[in-house]
TrEMBL record:
It is found in: Cell membrane; Membrane. GO terms for biological process: menaquinone biosynthetic process; vitamin K biosynthetic process. Signal peptide: none annotated. It comes from Flavobacterium nitrogenifigens. Conversion of 1,4-dihydroxy-2-naphthoate (DHNA) to demethylmenaquinone (DMK). Belongs to the MenA family. Type 1 subfamily. This is 1,4-dihydroxy-2-naphthoate octaprenyltransferase. Its main location: membrane. The gene is menA. Pathway: Quinol/quinone metabolism; menaquinone biosynthesis; menaquinol from 1,4-dihydroxy-2-naphthoate: step 1/2. Pfam families: UbiA.
């Protein structure tokens, strides 16, 4: 059990749910034209199964990554981070393959239940679309490193992370509640996607030499270490700016800029990356950036909850 928990890489889980949290609380704080109160738009069932489905996708991705890199020999003595399960021999490729199949089925089941709670027997078109999206997410999580056509070996991993853990996670879960897309929410969705890509980019910066030897052509391998740093700065800084723009356009009060506290560890992280001369020493920064992203999502939702309080007060006064 200990080895399976390690293979699931629990430190990556908070990052994966950041979009779910922001998208859900945004739905709660922004009733639509057809839904007048926060309690009408929010559902604990949708929230719970959205979290469960996203966590399933993240664990599936971690298992598949362990399996794909393990059987290809990419995880070898040159790798800097913690030893993977197949690499160290504590889990066999056959056992990991079975775990991937089981995790895929459980994640798909969770997604189906989530879709049912969101749309019921109505909105059949939406149900089919989200089911197809769920299947695509599962296939993409597996194909990142598994198979001869693994897209992670062609530098496309950043695209998958941005789409599914940024846009789809944040905008998708919000649509499950509101049945519409709020254009303003695109800004934090992009931010979370960029920060998630930043974590992957750090991983690829750390593993640049071993990936290059193994033929894993990540973006870092393709553009080189110096350009990878510039790419990393652009990801983090753009994400930070977009959240500020989101707050301004949302007409936040002064006390609703609490999320800026998360910019302290993010800024420290940028300084560390700037000063770094040995990519192998960037390994601790993966956890720091992931937790900073999670902190940003939590603080941003706290600011949204302040909006919820205003809505409830206005509804109460309006009723009187």
């Amino acid at each position: 059990m200990k080895h399976w928990i390690e293979a699931a890489r629990l430190r990556t889980l908070p990052l994966s749910v950041s979009g779910i949290i922001v998208g859900s609380i945004y739905a709660l704080s922004n009733p639509t034209e057809t839904i007048n109160t926060p309690t009408e738009v929010f559902s604990w069932k949708i929230f719970g199964f959205a979290l469960l489905t996203t966590l399933g996708l993240q664990v599936l991705s971690n298992f598949a990554n362990d399996y794909g890199d393990g059987v290809k020999g990419t995880d070898n003595a040159d790798r800097v981070g913690p030893q993977r399960a197949i690499q160290s021999g504590v889990i066999t490729p056959q056992a990991m393959k079975k775990a991937i199949i089981i995790t895929s089925l459980l994640t798909l089941l969770s997604a189906i239940i989530l879709i049912y709670f969101a749309f019921g027997k109505d909105n059949f078109g939406y149900s089919i679309f989200f089911l197809a999206l769920g299947v695509a997410a599962i296939v993409s999580a597996i194909k990142y490193t598994v198979g001869n056509s693994a897209y992670g070996y062609r530098g496309l991993g950043d695209v998958f992370v941005f789409l599914f853990f940024g846009l789809v996670s944040t905008l998708g879960v919000n649509f499950l509640y509101a049945k519409e897309i709020d254009p303003l929410l695109i800004l934090p969705a992009i931010s979370i996607g960029l920060l998630s890509v930043g974590v992957l980019n750090l991983n690829n910066m750390r593993d640049q030499e071993s990936d290059k030897k193994a033929g894993k052509n990540t973006i870092v391998v393709q553009i080189g270490a110096s350009n990878a740093k510039i790419y990393h700065y652009s990801l983090i800084i753009t994400a930070m700016l977009l959240v500020v723009i989101f707050a301004i356009l949302s007409d936040y009060n002064f006390d609703q800029y609490l999320f800026l506290l998360a910019y302290i560890p993010l800024t420290k992280h940028l300084i560390t990356v700037y000063k770094n001369q040995d990519p192998k020493l960037l390994d601790p920064e993966l956890k720091k950036l992931a937790l900073s992203t999670f902190l940003l999502s939590i603080l941003l939702t706290v600011c949204m909850i302040s909006l919820i309080s205003d809505i409830i007060v206005n509804l109460f006064l309006g009723g009187r």
